[in-house]
Amino acid sequence: MDQGPQKPFWRYENGVVLMMFFTFGFVFMERLSVVYLFPYLAPDLKLNDAQLGMIVSVLAICWALSGFFFGTISDFLGSRKNVLVPITLAFSLLSFLTGVAKNFGQMLGIRALMGVSEGPVLPIAQAAVMADSSEARRGFNMGFVQSALGLIGSTFGPLILTWAATKYSWHAGFYVAGIPGLIMFFVLLFFMKEPNKRMSKEELAKSEHRLRKEDFPVVFRTWNIWFTLLIAILMMTWLFAFTSFAPTFLVEYDHYTGEQMGVISAAMGLGTFFWGFMGPYISDKWGRRPTLVLFSFIAVLSPLVLIFVHGSVALMCVLGFLTCAGQACFPLFMVVIPGESLSPKYVGTAVGLVQMVGELIGGAVMPTVAGVAADHFGLPAPMWIAAAGAFVSGIMAFFIRETAPVRLRRRGQVAASEPVQL
């Protein structure tokens, strides 16, 4: 919506960005909690690396299917809040339930339900942000929201959760992870607004805020959607093969202590936070495609550093911060490019589709494959799988059609919200 020539800081655009930042950040902290707590819970529940991969995978499968289903439902309803608020409560309560799991089967079932509740958060949150973002800040706003997985999920997460597990138990780690989500449930309940409810009657009449059944095939006829699907598979292979096994790799292969692993993981998380919004900000100026190509190739380095460098904690923190710049790619291929390739009413569906395909293969299949590879060939195997995913993603990024408004205006092309179809 147009905010007028003067835009004070305390406006709803910034408010919705902050609400979605914290909501998604706490979701991802909870998602990664089992990875950070695995060195603590594995001996207690007698789990191996393949079972860790399966726990990560089942959540990813349910996350993927749920994200697409509820993202599309929110498009048909024309409502984001009515879906986001109840699922925020659900994933918070399920975090507490994870802490009482007594065996592999219970852990698997609870994490599956967790995936159902967490999957829709990103598509719905980003659709809400896109609806209230000014054109010049679209990439930054959406990147900032997604960068929460770095600051909250990957920086504060390992520090807080490993501290709780060391001082108390791994059960306490899951209890701690569930508290912030409960807080955000009440924040969203009282402060989140629907974009269409804040429009004037004239604006509402001109806008298309609700998806119709006959509109649905347009998503599949859009060039950029197909390439973002491929990149999602590859970059989620990088993300989940790397993040699922990096903590265990640091402890068991590089022989850092659990607390040192937490510090190094936190530094990596800080890097994913910084680059997670800096990359999309750069793309607002340079364009989406060149930024996506650059940071995909940088992502190749993060797993290779763990394989070939065994330095001090300080050195590993610096290298982890710099090489986790690959996180800059995720807001671009998952949200910004699909969102700009279609009109706003498709955003929940498009983002949910890209997330679903990427999660089902890169997030669900590959952690199990990486876990089996680790059991058979050693812990470096998942790192090589992650590096390969990022490298091929960089090649695929050359085929993306530019959507950044600043680049399109320079070329005199159509508005980015008009679908570029096959």
Automatic annotation (TrEMBL):
Which residue numbers delimit the Major facilitator superfamily (MFS) profile domain? 16-405
Which keywords appear in this protein's UniProt record, sorted alphabetically?
Membrane, Transmembrane, Transmembrane helix, Transport
Identify the domain of life: Bacteria
Indicate where this protein is primarily found. Answer: membrane
Please give the start and end residues of each transmembrane region. 16-38, 50-71, 83-101, 143-166, 172-191, 218-241, 261-278, 290-307, 313-334, 346-369, 381-400
Instruction: Please give one Pfam family short name.
Output: MFS_1
Q: Where in the cell is it found?
A: Cell membrane
The record ties this protein, via Gene3D superfamilies, to:
MFS general substrate transporter like domains
Membrane topology, as annotated, equals: Multi-pass membrane protein
Question: What is this protein called in UniProt?
Answer: MFS transporter
> From which organism does this entry originate?
Alicyclobacillus sendaiensis PA2
